[in-house]
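Annotated sample (chain length 174).
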Amino acid sequence: STTLRNMRSMRGSAAREVRVTMSGRRSRVETRAKMIDAAIAVFSERGYAGASIEAIARESGMTIGALYSNFSGKRALFMAALRVSTGRGADPGPQQLDPDVVGNSRERLVADGAAFMTQVRAQPQRFRLLVWSMMDAANDADVRSVVVEVLREQRQLQSDLLADVMTPESGGLT
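Output written by the structure step:
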């Protein structure tokens, strides 16, 4: 497969290589990214209950089978979309702040917050997805469990960073 270009995630964090086979087919990474973008668009317009796998497949230009070969179902796709909308990677596991930001924990915390606000302005559908998710979580246990899991991941990352900032050696946030 041949490297075509490096793509940056919406926050400018780790560059992702997009590979295309000699036949011109998309790589799995690029396909998943396209599906997640479509899921964000559909979920942000219709909410979790109003969205369907069929609508997401249509929006992505992919088949329903292709969606299911990349995600186990609507819930998994929703979780990946919500993770991306919070500024993290689509996959579970330990997340890190933008590795391009160098400096101490305080600078990294400020940069992370600024990057999120820039994302909100540049891609409002991602923020709309967060709002829809919060509203849907009040009445839908499945949505609530996804929202809680993603927000716990986010909180843990920020908590770890704040712990670094608040050490006596760092001088706190002053």
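Annotation: The chain is about 60% helix and 5% strand.
Annotation: Strands lie at 2-8, 15-20.
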